[in-house]
Write a structure and sequence with these properties.
The protein is an alpha/beta fold. Helix content is 39%, strand content 13%. The protein is built from 37 helices and 28 strands. A hairpin with a 4-residue loop joins strand 4 and strand 5. The longest helix is centred in the N-terminal third of the chain and has 26 residues. The chain starts with a strand and ends in a 13-residue tail after the last helix. The protein binds thiamine diphosphate (TPP) and magnesium ion (MG).
Length: 1014
């Protein structure tokens, strides 16, 4: 049966041009196969077939304009089943899913009921603190009831009753205050603690040696060169948190398992080096070269994959980046799993963070996303040593409670590890609740001060607050009181917390652990405000540290600050290695087993090398067209990760919603408002687009996760993050730097770029400097192309260099939203090479053969130059050569390198920079311009041997038409004519009257202040 395939609902558009025909008569097609690409003035979209069968006839051709309902093809259908009939309507599909879900839930509920913990212990005797309670007896009865419920029916039942009580009270009109906190005690009750299978004695010995070697490394480095710096106190407080993880939880990557990903707190790096030393991965010489990296073999100050590419995986030391990067890493891991690109092996992402670091807005900024996306593969460990660099994190409050509230509120599973095991019996005997009351009421400033003093002080200031608590510790000596440890230093408590965290399902977990900054450092470094910067320990301190941790070194060895490494055959070393063997290998370790992606054939971009004729389009649109083509390349299609922070429509990318779907971990639970339209908003569990919402930092974190996929997941991916160019480097500069350090590979697209090209949006949107920011990152390759073929050449080369040849560089490309027609690529065989090197000759005006000027233009301003040059030729008999500069940044790099070579090799034949190759023998002065600040083109000024002048858009942007803006910033064709004439006059090549006349002719106000002052 012959059927018609019609143009579907394409939204608000009519008479949209057909730009590509993707099928021919006689082709056998299936449902969803793309038929044609249509393009409005903003975006291009493929129309898929909704019928399968053989194409009988085609009713349209390239260049036709079509609207909804027009006939595209006649198809002899296979089974005459239209997509609409076959596909279950979304609503019905949702109902089915919901029903399935509730069946599953019932089953889960049943199993949890079966597995629920019913405590068999005897209920404790409950006494009530009298203060402020109008009926303690009644309170006692309620408490006893809940205790009985917990004992008889378990946690879930108790929780249910409490919830019902709260609901009832709320419905009766009781104003229920929001409680975000639980009491200031451990989340996991003693009887629910999972016990470690490790040998605690050996583990303590190993930990002590790591502590010692870490401190020794910092002290030795600073003894040699006091300027080197380093930190002892941070790792001292976190040693147990790391050790328990490394001995028991963090699984390494190997040929059987993808590996957990661990974000180490930046300035705890000495501890990781010290462990690697015991493991035999680093030697003494390397430890002695801590923070001395200029010569090969040194150890970097903090985790820097760029500097230690086989060791560190994640740069974390810029506070706040680690938490966000870890969240997006965990999310990206699920994305890869849901798209079927990697297996679900239950891998985890761990992030170790400081409590001071949690002040960074970025640290908490993405925790909502982690809960929303149910990232149960994510575990944060916040080391709450109550101090940051200058002093207490929350002297007047409680950082642990504050963080608990934030994370609980966001929907995280919160595990507080506040008190160590020595407290267990005290808490069990706290029948009146006075101890917990003091714990709740003591502020962090006091907690810190107590640990800087001694047991007697704690007895007086802490336990001394109530008679009951004073009695509670009456049988303990001051020394015993001093021994009452904090949870984060107790391997049992930490083990139990990690065990629970790794088993949690359906939400991310945060382990909030209380520790002491500078633990074990004694009077100079323990819990004092200056701990953070302690990098030198005197002999007495070192002796104390050795004794505190029983390090088997003689006094003399301590004086020499010797490292200690037990024999390879010792139980400690054997144990340490055995643990890692069990967990699959060493950690941290960075390795790559991904396969390269074959770059697409050159002809995939052929349609961008011919002229667009009358048709006008922006480079942003050309890019989207190109991506659509790439989605047809079998090697590349699956690997593209388009990332957009709520700007898909701005860039004309809405066609991607249907074509490849928006990633949504729960699929789409609703029928979108625009369901009937071709570009409807389609969310899908295996969707490819990361639609990040208004969230540049999150989008950049996703870009880094995808850009380092080749090492962290052993699969090479191609992230393409498109953003308003002004909200790129300017907004997320530090993340871009971390991305570069991580050796991310991928594309950053600064779309709608340029200070005058993005016309109406005004001062905050108009970008005149992103290329300069890009130029500050050594492995960033930036381009500012004007024409579609330049973009195609650059993009393909980027794919080849990064993803086929696996160079550790990334590309920043600006694209604009100004529509114009694009010429065919010049036939010159050196053109492609020039585009990539940064400049090539695009045009020559040579009618007059008298006076000449060299014009260098980039981005849309190149077009103003071409127009200006034409005027100069026709009206002023001035010839010119016009160079399209695709990258001032790349030209500068080459210029710098050649200049350096020549200066260092004075007796050798000087090399020529590429700029000189192009311009050295040319006639006339040079004038360069771009839609960026003058300093953009000035980048090459030192490397040209001729007179050089530049025009640019220095100053604040403002909203107006492109024409007015270019006039204001003096980069329009009229200014190019005037400045061109003036330059020639200054060079004494023509008389100045021509410039004076032109100033008058074009109404240029020579008294107007510099735009930077306006
Ligand atoms: C963005 C940023 N700002 C400032 C610093 C400097 N800095 C390094 S460590 C530190 C204090 C960290 O305190 P905390 O997070 O509590 O870690 P701790 O050492 O106490 O574990 C500061 C301010 C930094 N590394 N990054
Ligand atoms: Mg801290």
């Amino acid at each position: 049966m012959s059927e018609k395939l019609l143009v579907p609902d394409i939204g608000d558009f009519e008479k949209v041009e057909v730009i590509e025909l993707l099928v021919k008569e006689g082709d056998q097609i299936k449902v969803n196969d793309p038929i044609v690409t249509i393009e409005s003035d903003k975006s291009s979209v493929e129309i898929p077939s909704i019928i399968s069968g053989k194409i009988e006839s085609i009713n349209i051709k390239v260049g036709d304009k079509v609207s909804k309902g027009d006939v595209l093809l006649h198809i002899v259908s296979e089974n005459s089943t239209k997509k609409d009939e076959k596909i279950i309507p979304k609503d019905t599909e949702n109902l089915i899913k919901e029903a399935e879900q509730s069946l599953k839930k019932n089953k889960e509920e049943k199993t949890t009921l079966e597995n629920r913990i019913i405590r068999q212990e005897k209920p404790q005797i409950i006494e009530v603190v009298n203060k402020g309670d109008i009926d303690p007896l009644e309170t006692k009865e309620w408490l006893e009831s809940i205790s009985a419920v917990i004992e008889r029916d378990g946690d879930d039942r108790a929780h249910h009753l409490i919830k019902e009580l709260i609901n009832k009270a709320y419905m009766e009109g009781v104003n229920i205050p929001y409680t975000q906190n639980t009491p200031y005690i451990n989340t996991i009750p003693v009887n629910e603690e999972k016990k470690s299978t490790g040998d605690q004695n050996i583990e303590r010995k190993i930990r002590s040696l790591i502590r010692w070697n870490a401190a020794a490394m910092v002290v030795r480095a600073n003894k040699k060169f006091p300027e080197l710096g380093g930190h002892i106190g941070t790792f001292a407080s976190a040693a147990t948190l790391y050790d328990v993880g490394i001995n028991h939880f963090f699984r390494a990557k190997n040929n059987k398992f993808g590996g957990d990903l661990v974000y180490f707190q930046g300035h705890s790096a000495p501890g990781m080096y010290a462990r690697a030393f015991l493991e035999g991965r680093l030697n003494e010489k390397q430890l002695d070269n801590f923070r001395q990296e200029v010569k090969p073999g040194g150890l970097s100050s903090y985790p820097h994959p760029w500097l230690m590419p086989n060791f560190w995986q994640f740069p974390t030391v810029s506070m706040g980046l680690g938490p966000m990067l870890a969240i997006y890493q965990a999310r990206y891991m699920k994305y890869l799993i849901n798209r079927g690109l990697i297996k679900d092996e239950g891998r985890k992402v761990w992030a170790f963070l400081g409590d001071g670091e949690m002040d960074e807005p970025e640290s908490l900024g993405a925790i909502g996303l982690a809960a929303r996306e149910k990232l149960d593969n994510l575990i944060f460990v916040v080391n709450c040593n109550l101090q940051r660099l200058d002093g207490p994190v929350r002297g007047n409050g409680k950082i642990i409670q504050e963080l608990e509230g934030s994370f609980r509120g966001a929907g995280w599973n919160v595990i507080k590890v506040i008190w160590g095991s020595y407290w267990d019996s005290l808490l069990a005997n706290d029948k009146t609740g006075h101890l917990v009351k003091i714990m709740n009421e003591t502020v962090d400033g006091e907690y810190q001060a107590m640990k800087a003093r001694n047991g007697a002080y704690v007895r007086e200031k802490f336990f001394g607050k109530f008679l009951e608590t004073r009695e509670l510790v009456s049988s303990l000596s001051d020394k015993d009181i001093w021994k009452l440890n904090r949870g984060g230093h107790d391997p049992h408590k930490v083990f139990a917390a990690y065990d629970k965290a790794t088993k949690n399902v359906g939400s991310p977990t945060v382990v909030i652990a209380k520790t002491i900054k500078g633990y074990g450092m004694g009077k100079t470094g323990e819990s004092v405000n200056t701990t953070h910067q302690t990098k030198k320990l005197d002999v007495d301190d070192l002796m104390y540290y050795r004794d505190r941790f029983d390090v088997p070194l003689t006094d003399n060895q301590v004086r020499n600050i010797e490292y200690y490494k037990p024999d390879e055959k010792s139980v400690e070393i054997k144990y340490l290695k055995e643990r890692r063997l069990q967990l699959g290998g060493f950690i941290p370790e960075r390795s790559t087993f991904s396969k390269p992606i074959k770059a697409p054939p050159k002809d995939i971009f052929d349609n961008m090398k011919v002229s667009t004729g009358e048709k006008e389009m922006s480079t942003t649109m050309a890019l989207v067209r190109m991506l659509t083509n790439l989605l047809r390349d079998k090697n590349v299609a699956q690997r593209l990760v388009p990332i957009i922070p709520d700007e898909a429509r701005t860039f004309g990318m809405e066609g991607f919603f249907q074509k490849i779907g928006i990633y949504a971990h729960e699929g789409q639970k609703y029928e979108p408002e625009d369901a009937a339209q071709l570009s409807s908003y389609r969310e899908d569990k295996s969707g490819q687009v990361l639609e990040e919402g208004i969230n540049e930092a999150g989008a950049m974190s996703s870009w880094i996760a995808a850009g380092t996929s080749y090492t962290n997941h052993d699969i090479e991916m191609i992230p393409i993050y498109l953003f308003y160019s002004m909200f790129g480097f300017q907004r997320i500069g530090d993340l871009a730097w971390a991305g570069a350090d991580s050796q991310s590979r991928g594309f950053l697209i600064g779309a709608t770029a340029g200070r005058t090209t993005l016309a109406g949006e005004g001062l905050q949107h108009q970008d005149g400097h992103s290329h300069l920011l890009a130029s500050t990152i050594p492995n960033c390759i930036a381009y500012d192309p004007t024409f579609h073929y330049e973009l195609a050449v650059i993009f393909r080369e980027g794919l080849r260099r990064m993803h086929e040849k696996r160079e550790n560089v990334f590309y920043y490309i600006t694209t604009m939203n100004e529509n114009y027609s694009h010429p065919a690529m010049p036939k010159d065989k050196n053109c492609e090479d020039g585009i990539l090197k940064g400049m090539y000759k695009i045009k020559e005006f040579s009618k007059n053969k008298k006076t000449k000027i060299q014009f260098l233009g980039s981005g849309t301003i190149l077009r103003e130059m071409i127009k200006g040059a034409e005027i100069l030729q026709n009206e002023y008999q001035i010839d010119s050569e016009i160079w399209s500069v695709t990258s001032f940044n790349e030209l500068r790099k080459d210029g710098m390198e050649v200049e350096r070579y020549n200066l260092l090799n004075p007796n050798k034949e000087p090399k020529k920079s590429y700029i000189e190759e192009c311009l050295g023998k040319k006639e006339g002065p040079i004038m360069a311009a771009s839609d960026y600040m003058r300093i953009n083109s000035d980048q090459i000024r030192p490397y040209v041997s001729k007179s050089f002048y530049s025009l640019g858009t220095d100053g604040f942007g403002r909203s107006d038409t492109r024409k007015n803006l270019r006039n204001f910033f003096e980069v329009d064709k009229e200014h190019i004519v005037v400045y061109g004439l003036s330059v020639l006059a200054k060079e004494q090549l023509i008389a100045s009257k021509y410039a004076t006349e032109a100033i008058k002719k074009y109404n240029i106000d020579s008294k107007k202040p510099m735009p930077t002052k306006l």
